[in-house]
From TrEMBL:
Recorded superkingdom: Eukaryota
PROSITE patterns: PH_DOMAIN (PS50003), RHOGAP (PS50238), SH3 (PS50002)
Compositionally biased intervals (Low complexity): 625-639, 666-707
CDD domains referenced in this protein's UniProt entry, alphabetically: BAR-PH_GRAF_family (cd01249), BAR_GRAF (cd07636), SH3_GRAF-like (cd11882)
GO cellular component labels: cytoskeleton; cytosol; endosome membrane; focal adhesion
Chief place of localization: other
Sequence ranges of Polar residues compositional bias: 569-584, 648-658
UniProt xrefs under Pfam families: BAR_3, PH, RhoGAP, SH3_9
Residues of the SH3 domain: 709-767
This protein's name: Rho GTPase-activating protein 26
Domain Rho-GAP: 383-567
Residues of the PH domain: 265-369
Gene3D superfamilies (UniProt xref): Arfaptin homology (AH) domain/BAR domain, Pleckstrin-homology domain (PH domain)/Phosphotyrosine-binding domain (PTB), Rho GTPase activation protein, SH3 Domains
């Protein structure tokens, strides 16, 4: 299902399968380019030809309905599914609007045509240029390599050394071009999910504004529009975090390519030149060879990247022996002989370098010394799931909940690294932990939250373990939301006892943080973005693993949303010694649940009641007791672990990467109020202008009168610029909270980004 992920490590192997996967991406880009070009053409026809408007709209709608998105990976998130079906929804709306046309479409060029043309020129054209460069470097590298390998071993050592350096330079340049091309191709594939759909959504918003007869249809579309807006923003946020991770991986591979080459204990593969006799003449033929160590089977496929990537027939044999070929016995370098059990004679092969020959011979148990390819494992840090770790986490959590749980950007804003390291070293040391006073102004809240994240990152293994990492991802990919929760519930109770207890302590804290999201702006979705890659980091850093970050976030969202059920109830399917119910019942949280991630479109406009706003969660007794740092050296951890704090910790954005604070306000996907038009990075909604004065409308919504309902939520149908200090400026799609009647005729009072002001009554619709 979908397009396969292109691994950067495959750029070094340059296998036939990698070339085939790359072709599928190129074909998809060509398909998208043609579709966008056709879509732009249809859009212009729609604007210019009023008489043929009906025909143009039908063709435009049909084009949207026929196009299908292809995602990278084997599964789609709910947001991606929502985006994928959006084109079909748009088509249905356009077909229903055919009989309701009354005006010429205004602003269509700026809203629809220019963004699509910009995407096509800046993104797809850039990918095409990268392909030309990649094809050119492929041909150059293959030519230089063949010329180099044909050099006689009898030439002077200086000449051979100079030739080796030349080939290394060409090879390194080819690898860099290949990495950049793969990165660009996958970037364009991901960007089109929002850069391509969002202009269409804005275009439809314009149609609704200027089509009076389509008003009722626009109201029916509002629910899906809200879902899609959230999905687009969620997809954009995940893209930003994923892109930064992929780009970081690409830079690492550029700087240290040898350290990131995938070396398997069970498989060796790469290009080899095989000496063959044809018509009484010996010739070297290039094969892509794969050796499986378990059955000792060698597979060879005739393939030459220069010839357009045409694959030959596959040959295979069972390896009997492998022997290094002495330099004085053959003119070529890097040669070795292999014997097969199921075919006669000796097969002479030539590797691409001395290092490559060593790897092949080591894999085949040849007569070369075996070198240890395993990297020295880094010494485990001081962070452990022990008594000290639990007490330090409780102390940090208690400080966050009592000092700064309402602080905006909690867990998103990173602390100074030197201060974070100092705090951790002091609190983790039994000799100095008693001297650390977290109430001191020296320790800012962002320093404490960064210390929590850093502690979880430097554990020898992720908190949710490498063993179950793929199982959690698989559970998040399930179609049924209830099945996801059930499976994750079961997996949590299969975790080792200490891991599960620490996870419960953390998730309860995160749920507490999410319950204060109106103050700290850290919703369940934002916390998922911060803690997903930390709690479920993969054992191997690959492009495919980075693409699964969005599912890691979903797992954390489910844990927070259903924390009472997951940690206080033992699932029927959970078995094993770690899954026995605890003798002591776990304390239930007295707080109301934070907005649901599965019901995100509905909770977008969730407003707490007056009693909820004034409600403060009491600190947990055992967390409070744990602030005595003398417990750091106690010998028993069970007494303070099982009943961990039921507060919850917010999580920073992946895009921040513990770097600069992410000050932008999120769109409805983050479950907070929409940003004001003057916010630093407000969304690129079209600024459609409504009439300068409110015109009479029977009702702004299906309700009989907005005056009869106090404290409701409403969404802006038009954009409005304030002409007085008491008025609010806003754009179409803005959500207002606590909307109620005003003393001014024709005006309502509402709240936007914490500021109260007047809103034209007929500019909004109640939700």
């Amino acid at each position: 299902m979908g397009l396969p992920a292109l691994e950067f490590s495959d750029c070094y192997l340059d296998s036939p399968q990698f070339r085939e996967r790359l072709k599928s991406h190129e074909a998809e880009l060509d398909k998208t380019n043609k579709f966008i070009k056709e879509l732009i053409k249809d859009g212009k026809a729609l604007v210019q030809a009023l008489k043929s408007l009906s025909t143009a709209k039908r063709k435009f709608a049909d084009s949207l309905n026929d196009f299908k998105f292809q995602c990278i990976g084997d599964a789609e998130t709910d947001d991606e599914i929502c985006i994928a079906k959006s084109l079909q929804e748009f088509a249905a709306v356009l077909q229903n609007l055919e009989d309701e046309r009354t005006r010429m479409i205004e602003n269509a060029n700026d809203v629809l045509i220019l963004p699509l043309e910009r995407f096509r020129k800046e993104q797809i054209s850039a990918a095409k240029e990268a392909k030309k460069k990649y094809d050119k470097e492929t041909e150059k590298y293959c030519g230089v390599l063949e010329k180099h390998l044909s050099l006689s071993a009898k030439k002077k050592e200086a000449h051979l050394h100079e030739a080796d350096n030349q080939v290394d330079n060409v090879r390194q340049h080819f690898y860099e071009v290949s990495l950049e091309y793969v990165f660009k191709v996958q970037e364009v594939q991901e960007r089109k999910m929002f850069d391509f759909v969002e202009p269409l959504l804005a275009f439809l918003q314009g149609l609704f504004t200027y089509y009076h007869h389509g008003y009722e249809l626009a109201k029916d579309f509002n629910h899906f529009k809200t879902d899609l807006t959230i999905s687009i923003q969620n997809t954009r946020n995940r893209f930003e975090s994923t892109r930064s991770e992929v780009e970081s991986l690409m830079r690492k591979m550029k700087e240290n390519p040898h350290e990131h080459k995938s070396i398997s204990q069970h498989l060796m593969e790469g290009y080899l030149f095989v000496l063959e006799k044809r018509s009484f003449v010996s010739t070297w033929v290039k094969y892509y060879c794969t050796y499986h160590r378990e059955p000792k089977r060698v597979t060879m496929v005739l393939f030459d990247p220069k010839s357009g990537g045409k694959m030959g027939e596959e040959e295979s044999f069972i390896l009997k022996s492998c022997t290094r070929r002495k330099t004085d016995s053959i003119e070529k370098r890097f040669c070795f002989d292999v014997e097969a059990m199921d075919r006669p004679g000796v097969i002479t092969m030539q590797a691409l370098s001395e290092e490559d020959r060593r790897l092949w011979m080591e894999a085949m148990d040849g007569r070369e010394p075996v070198y240890n390819l395993n990297r020295d494992s880094q010494a485990e840090g001081m962070a452990q799931l022990d008594v000290i770790g639990f007490n330090v986490m409780k102390k940090f959590i208690y400080a966050v909940e009592t000092r700064g749980i309402d602080e905006q950007g909690l867990y998103r804003i990173a602390g100074v690294n030197s201060k974070v390291q100092k705090l951790l070293s002091l609190t983790m040391d039994p000799k100095t932990c008693a001297d650390v006073e977290l109430d001191s102004p020296e320790w800012e809240i962002k320093t404490i939250t960064s210390a929590i994240k850093h502690y979880l990152r430097v554990l020898p293994a992720p908190l949710m373990t490498y063993q179950y990492q793929r199982s959690f991802i698989k559970a998040a990919k399930m179609d049924n939301p209830e099945t996801r929760v059930t499976e994750i519930h079961t997996l949590v109770h299969r975790l080792p006892e200490k891991n599960r207890q620490m996870l419960e302590l953390l998730v309860n804290h995160l749920a507490n943080v999410a319950s204060h999201h109106h103050q700290n702006l850290m919703t369940i979705a934002n916390l998922g973005v911060v803690f997903g890659p930390t709690l479920l980091r993969p054992q191997e850093e690959t492009v495919a693993a980075i693409m699964d970050i969005k599912f890691q976030n979903i797992v954390v969202e489910i844990l927070i949303e259903h924390h009472e059920r997951i940690f206080q109830q033992v699932p029927n399917s959970a078995d094993g010694p770690n899954n026995m119910p605890s003798n002591q019942s776990r304390r239930r949280s007295t707080e109301s649940k934070a907005p649901s991630c599965s019901e995100r479109p509905l909770t977008l406009f969730h407003t707490p009641t007056h009693s909820q706003k004034g409600e403060k969660r009491n600190s947990v007794a055992d967390v409070q007791n744990s602030t005595n740092c003398n417990n750091c050296s106690s010998s028993s951890s069970s007494s303070g672990v099982g009943g961990g704090s039921h507060s919850q910790t917010p999580r920073h954005s992946l895009t921040s990467n513990d770097g600069e604070p992410d000050s932008r306000q999120t769109r409805p996907s983050s479950l907070t109020t929409s940003p004001s038009p003057t916010s630093p990075r407000s969304p690129s909604w079209p600024m459609f202008s409504a009439p300068s004065s409110p015109h009479p409308v029977s009702s702004a919504s299906s309700d009989s009168s907005p005056v009869s309902v106090s404290g409701r939520k409403a969404i802006a149908l038009y954009a409005c610029k304030a002409e007085h200090e008491s008025e609010l400026s806003f754009i179409a799609g803005t959500v207002f909270l606590n909307v109620h009647a005003s003393r001014e005729p024709g005006w309502l009072e509402g709240t936007l980004d914490g500021r109260k002001g007047l809103i034209p009554e007929n500019y909004v619709e109640f939700l």
